[in-house]
């Protein structure tokens, strides 16, 4: 056998057929020379044909397998390309034709670059997802308070089926939200820590120890990342509330002690020097808890010192309690006296003093009781103020009324003497004041009744019912008016008798039977004026000097409390006109 030249296509097939035919011809020559029978020859030829077919079949199978592999690679590439497009959220790749043509190898060669580019895009996108998701996991772990977590990108699981830009944007938005929440939590933690430091300084406590008890990472010296979980925030909030409650408790106690100190200082007239060490305690009495931030202002030592001082002053107050009680009692009596109210009985006060001496009464309760009595007395005095002002006006007017009565009875009031003009002016003012008395009394009665209806008690003036005094005054005034009216009538009748007696025409007819003769009454014409004047003045004096019956007032409705009798000087009423008319008729030539 010789070698055959290489060729392609139809030339190769012809050469092969020629080579096979030449070899077959050579084989026949050999067989003819050897004398091979026909059967063997046919058998060998059949074997050669079968072997040749087998070789062709193998070649065809190999070609089919290669073609199927190319189809599969092309299908897988197209499927991967499509999957990458979907997972990246893109519709197509620019520069790649929608439909591919050519042989399988040509089609495969055309899709391979686009597929590689899509794979590179996927890798970059996955890296972005890993970074964002890693940060999300880290911040979420910090917010949840988890200290053990892996922040390496490889530890983050990325869903490669959805790595679109839309999904990446969602993760980025979530990361921004977590960053904002982390920042807010850090601010809240810092605010809580600052509040704890301030409260601890005010209360005299170690803030570092308090913060470390909440969580070691909150201490700045620890160097750890601050825990910002919900549990830590709750513990911080609870710690702040506990400190604020302790602050309020101490403040309430110091305010109570401050009030006690102020009361004790006021009772015992404590000097400024002795007060000065505790003025900061009394200064807290009007302050709210939020207003107090001075370091060391509410320490346990300050509370202890204030308690000790209050106890010391309480013991000192116990020794001076009797003096304090008497002082407050005098204050109460002064209020009652100024308002003419009923003063507490001396027996009750002596009983309380004996209880103080024996220690049977609590000092604080006693002072509280006295203060309540003073408060009630001041309140009642305030309610009586308007009535008492009008009572004072009435008493002043009544004094002027009595003075006017005495002045009207003075026969020398019109004489030219030193100070006479002042008395005349005072008399004019007194008459104006006296004329206002009825209206003033009526107003007083109305106001007093209104006060009694509101208070459901009797209005007492120096332990005497004011209404009874006013009604008695009205009754006596009415009696004096009636008496004055009778005197006027009697004076007119007497003046008429004198006029008829001195008339040059003689008595009128019928008058002799209604009067006594001048000679029988006066003893002659010369004594007419003095005797008649004396008779009138005696008759006026009888009415003036007639004392009014006293009125007895009952205190409490059971026993007489005060007996009061009205003297002539107090309730006599004579107008100037009456006196002037009498004096001008009977005083002779010196009458004005």
Would you count the extended β strands for me? Answer: 4
Structural class: mainly alpha
Strand content bin: under 5%
Distance between the termini: 200 Å
**Overall average pLDDT:** 75
How would you write the strand order of the largest sheet? 1-2
How large, in whole angstroms, is the Cα Rg? 66 Å
Q: Note the overall shape.
A: rod-shaped
Low-confidence stretches: 1-11, 506-592
Helix segment count? 19
Order of helices and strands: HHHHHHHHHHHHHHEEHHHEEHH
How many structural domains can be distinguished in the coordinates?
A: 3
- What is the makeup of the main sheet? 2 strands, antiparallel
Describe the model.
By secondary structure, the chain is mostly helical. It has 3 domains: 19-154, no CATH class; 189-319, no CATH class; 382-412 and 422-501 and 530-590, no CATH class. Helix content is 71%, strand content 3%. It is built from 19 helices and 4 strands. The strands form 2 sheets. A two-stranded antiparallel sheet has the order 1-2. Strands 3-4 form a two-stranded antiparallel sheet. The longest helix is centred in the first third of the chain and has 51 residues, at 38-88. 12% of the residues are buried. Residues 1-11 and 506-592 have low confidence and may be disordered.
Give the gist of this structure:
The protein has 592 residues and is mainly alpha-helical. Helices cover 71% and strands 3% of the residues.
Detail the topology: elements first, then pairings.
Blueprint: H1 9-34, H2 38-88, H3 104-144, H4 165-203, H5 207-214, H6 230-268, H7 272-275, H8 279-282, H9 300-319, H10 321-338, H11 346-358, H12 363-409, H13 420-435, H14 437-455, E1 460-461, E2 464-465, H15 466-502, H16 518-522, H17 528-544, E3 551-555, E4 559-564, H18 568-571, H19 576-586
Antiparallel strand pairs: 1-2, 3-4
Helix pairs in contact: 2-3, 3-4, 4-5, 4-6, 6-9, 10-11, 10-12, 12-13, 12-14, 14-15, 15-17, 17-19
